[in-house]
Write a sequence for this structure.
């Protein structure tokens, strides 16, 4: 990869790291991490999400009991202000990363567009 | 999104567009596009790939006949120097985009790492 590409990527990395959105996200993560009960609930939620995704990918059935348990966790998460705020910030960051990607890969899209014609 | 983030993303987009790798990729695309028989074969190959992917995603069987037809297309593609060169350049570009992404999202990975602990 050219030096210019590398340098530009690191500039963007730095801009992301210094953005208000990243700083907010980091603060909210730290707050969840610093609170044992929120941290535990958040990990439970993440594990549940991962298990559900894996079952779906492998075409396995999700039982009524699992659905009921998941709903309890989701309700607990929604009631937890620290986690709710963190998840909102995660979603905003995820949209920013998507927007950045759309900008960066535009030259490639133009290329594919011209070949598809 | 902050102005700084936007500007940095556009700088990277420009660096990508001006990179030797992108210019090579564009030239090879244009060469395939300008040659009717290569262009037609390349589109046939792309459509075949897409169909196979869709069947796999939907859990549909791929027949022996489809496999045989796919193998003929792949052999034709491998024998076509214009397309082979283009596909090599595409692979290099795909690796570059992956590397760029790894650099950019490093701040986020650090965050997730600290929460997983
Ligand atoms: Ca074409
Ligand atoms: Ca933790």
């Amino acid at each position: 990869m050219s030096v210019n590409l590398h340098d530009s990527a690191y500039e963007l990395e730095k801009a992301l790291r210094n953005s208000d959105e990243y700083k907010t996200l980091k603060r909210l993560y730290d707050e969840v991490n610093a609170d044992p009960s929120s941290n535990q609930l958040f990990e439970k939620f993440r594990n549940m999400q991962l298990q559900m995704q894996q079952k779906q990918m492998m075409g396995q059935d999700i039982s009524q009991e699992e659905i009921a348990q998941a709903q309890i966790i989701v309700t607990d998460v929604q009631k937890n202000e620290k986690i709710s705020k963190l998840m909102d910030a995660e979603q905003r960051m995820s949209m920013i990363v998507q927007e950045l990607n759309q900008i960066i890969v535009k030259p490639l899209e133009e290329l594919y567009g011209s070949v598809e014609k």
